[in-house]
């Protein structure tokens, strides 16, 4: 719509800034300098009143701060470890009050049903050993049922549990799908109930657990419904990864490789050299072939991946800035993943996207031939797919057109510009995209298998 010009364009606009202070139980707006000794609290929020001949308008500026913890631990389900129950509490007095109270701790736990089959008995033993009043809801949490119906099922049970949203955070235990669904359900219940994330896959360990996104699939689109509500805490325990199938280790390594290519050459070289060991040992202590170096490499790689991820997410938690390096591998992969569901895991689809974009970078003069080959060889070494027959030029064009609609009219394409360096590009020509696609298909389709064994 065009701008409407009213007859009285010279109407005076009088703006007044009000601070907000609390005196006893009442908030009041105040002009000018505040005497802190005369009030109980001064809010960071402001109200700006604007008066014109046409009426009055108020602009509210209310800074919102979220504090959440990402904590690595070990033995999370050891009854002597209270991290799962109390690790999210940051106020020492509140923690002391809970520990000295006779009131039992209550927790509602949502857990992926496959994870429950492995850890259900241990989880139950943990809760009972700590005298917790609990409800465990085990659900199938896969991309196929990552839906609003699943979120509402959780909310029904949460409501029946009569959960106190102030002091009883919902606990989500599982992979990224589980954490996303539970996060959305928690954000909806009583407009925001705190929740805790416990990732049990490598991908969720370094990706879904450390950010603020929640969501479910809708209208055949990935994560089309969701909210930016971070957890109260995420508790990371690498021991869960030991029961994850090898293919799912590769799946998580794709997101780790994403951060390496975008931000950290050292992480890339670590994955390049030790990727096979990480697959073989599943990020655990190994007393046979690899010795103590396995857990050292596992700890170093996950720490770098999480740190680089938090560096990108923390200053842009609500994605106000649409130029995001963490979108690398996520321009075409959402459409590919949904198109071939359930044959590709999330990280596999992301890696196919990244593989193609490496060729785009090479055609754009951002990567040398040697760098391109090193990256592709690393992907193959991590047992990740690098090509797929459904990743077509038509899919590429449609996905980039959709991205233009939802990214402020710019494609905002993250591309590696060397190993561990990247930038955002908006003017990559169709000719470059097409040349990259032809070379990518010619060089990789022969040796790639478009399906992966579970």
Folded structure, characterized:
Helix content is 41%, strand content 20%. It is α/β, with parallel strands linked by helices and 454 residues long. β10 and β11 form a beta hairpin. The radius of gyration is 25 Å and the shape is globular.
Q: Outline, from the CA principal axes?
A: globular
Ranges where pLDDT stays below 50 over 5 or more residues in a row are 1-11, 449-454
* Helix content bin: 40-55%
How far from one another are the termini?
Answer: 52 Å
Secondary structure blueprint with pairings:
Blueprint: E1 14-23, E2 26-30, E3 41-52, E4 55-61, E5 69-73, H1 83-86, H2 92-100, E6 106-112, H3 113-129, E7 133-139, H4 148-160, E8 170-174, H5 176-188, E9 195-199, H6 202-206, E10 213-218, E11 221-228, E12 233-237, H7 246-263, H8 265-281, H9 293-313, H10 333-339, H11 346-363, H12 369-381, H13 393-406, E13 413-416, E14 422-425, H14 430-444
Parallel strand pairs: 5-12, 6-7, 6-8, 8-9, 9-12
Antiparallel strand pairs: 1-2, 1-3, 3-4, 10-11, 13-14
Highlighted features:
four-stranded antiparallel beta sheet, single chain, 454 residues, 14 strands, 41% helix, 20% strand, 14 helices
